[in-house]
Amino acid sequence: MFEQSSSVMKNIILVGKPNSGKSLLFNQLTGMRQKVANFPGVTVELKSGKFGEHTLIDFPGAYSLSTLSRDEEIAVEKIHEAMHDDNTGVIVCNLDATRLERSLVFGLQVRDLAKQHDKALVFALNMIDEVGRFSHQVDCDKLSEDLGAAVFPLSAKTLVGIHEFKLALNEVASQPEKYIPRQRVPDDDSVFNVSRRIAKQYGIHADIVLKQQNTIDSFLLNSVLGGVAFFSIMFVLFQSIFTWATPLMDGVESIIGWLAVAVTSVIGQGVINDFLQDAIFGGLGSFLVFVPQIMVLTLIIGLLEDSGYLARAALICHKPLSYFGLSGRSFIPYLSGHACAIPAIMAARTIESPRKRLITMMTIPLMSCSARLPVYALLIAVLIPNTTYLGGLLSLQGTAFFVLYFLGIVTALIVSVLLNKFTENDSDKAEMPFILELPNYRLPHWKPLILRVLTSAKQFIRRAGPVIFMVSVVIWFLGYFPSSEHDLQGSYLSMLGQWIEPVFEPLGLDWRYGVAILVSFLAREVFVGALGTLFGIEGADENIAGLAENIQADGLTLGAGLGLLIFYVIALQCVATVATLKGETGSKKIAWGLFAGYGLLAYTSAFIVSHIF
Amino acid sequence: MTLWDIPAKKSGLISGLDNALLPAVTNRLLEMGLTDGQSVRCLRRSPMNGPVVVQIGDCVYTLEQSIADKVAVSSLS
Ligand SMILES: Nc1nc2c(ncn2[C@@H]2O[C@H](COP(=O)(O)OP(=O)(O)OP(=O)(O)O)[C@@H](O)[C@H]2O)c(=O)[nH]1
Ligand SMILES: [Mg+2]
């Protein structure tokens, strides 16, 4: 019989205070790309990756072993589990060198727990580059002695000390018994006192680290300037999705147009030519045009998340949001909901109050996610003239974008008030207060940011691309045959369309839009692809003008167009979001109820709008 | 006087937490550094009775009124 070696395949768990750089360290050690951002509560579930032959597990941050919010609850529950698990080889406790005292309160608690369970524990003293900037040196040998566990100074950002840490971690994992903490907080002392004492001895003076942050805050949190700054940032955010991306989008559009001409001229007239032109270049192509917008949106949200401003925005919004029954913490999921509702609903875990968390989750689908971008952009290009003011700084179309986003937010707030009314008589005791740490301002880390932008484009294409491709092909076949002139009005699709037309007629839309709306329940972007194919079949000639021009020429009325926009602002056309809602709220009824409720509201609002204009 | 009453740019020493706070919240506040004798500085107040921004130890936090007014503070300077 072989003895099972204790050295192989152990779990290494990575824990620490929120926003202390755990996930960035995790990424550096595993080569993975977990989300890193500069506010507490980014990681909300356990993530594991490979570190050599070991498994490294990134935890949500926690201030202590007693918990307030759902993400912390998960972290602490799992820490206790890991302590009892034989597979747990090493605990890496991440300390933020700029916030040593706060990091140690949690660190010492975990250390004592590890000692109690005979688990190996090492400290990673992260962000050493930031204290280094103030020429502060930490005597890590002595600190190790005082803490009774090894301390490794490193920076997950500049990579100082990472190589050494990797070597050390392998060594620790192979001989864990040598790294069981040698000390614990004595019974006649408290974790708080020990942390304060050690931080005073080794840490950098708080006033030095906080000076820059406080100076910037005196502008960004100023009662007058702060508000102006907040609205300017939000306006630039939404407007730039339109203005910055336009040149790139034009570029993609001409490349696709050029490709279409090149390919179809080689093939010659016929069914295949028509198919390529209508379904592939018309359908799939009109969707690819919007990739640059997704990238710009991700870039800007990424910049904001990494800068440290989001925690300030949460503070500024707390009071106003509390009138609607929400918390300042709702701001962050709301903002990231503009990229995609799914991670945003997960991010709501950091909201302490269960009721506010529920209301936030239920209203996140009203944030205009990136899947709506193509629909908005297309319809705005059709309906709103391309006028600019102030030398191009302000564009009418960009402003229309802002209005649509704003409309989604306003609807969310109204729904929140209503939901709050209905749940009011529930226990108000479970109300948890708003406490948030304001992190240092940091310059965004460009490499992960660029990677994130590229990933967002890839995901956007991978998620919706296949669906759009299939829908375009199916629609093309149904729309092209059987009429001999390949006329849309004589096609199978048109016959089917007559059936659904009564539903969409009250909105001032004919069956072609009806078909596009119905298939967009698969994914919202499909709307654009489907219309692209339909208008491709109709605009029979070599005319590969943009889809927007085709729709304009076809004559979509302003009322119907605006109604359509409102419909897309409100409707919850995303199965994945419904599934996430079901998972996070634990209720099928809530999830499908929202689907039906928002659908109904969307239809009614579209009806009203189409009759006003 | 409480943490809610400290004027901006003034410091004080924490002298206790109100019993009316939920135990979970009290614990959290202690762990965030709001222990007896800890010095706190009010960095700024927000308009319309919005949350206050305070520096406690090496961290900057923002707290809303419902907790800030349950943290007793003494020896203002
Ligand atoms: N200067 C510097 N910044 C760092 C370092 N490590 C992380 N950061 C930054 O610190 C911020 C927080 O990093 P994360 O890795 O998201 O922190 P976390 O501990 O995983 O946070 P939670 O998941 O919220 O608990 C990000 O803005 C990082 O870019 C470092 O060594 N030096
Ligand atoms: Mg993290």
Automatic annotation (TrEMBL), chain B:
SMART domains: FeoA (SM00899). Residues 1-75 form the Ferrous iron transporter FeoA-like domain. SUPFAM superfamilies: C-terminal domain of transcriptional repressors. Keywords: Iron. Signal peptide: none annotated. The keyword Cytoplasm does not apply. InterPro entries: Fe-transptr_FeoA-like, FeoA_core_dom, Transcriptional_repressor_C. The keyword Iron applies. One of its GO terms (molecular function) is transition metal ion binding. Pfam families: FeoA. This is Ferrous iron transporter FeoA-like domain-containing protein.
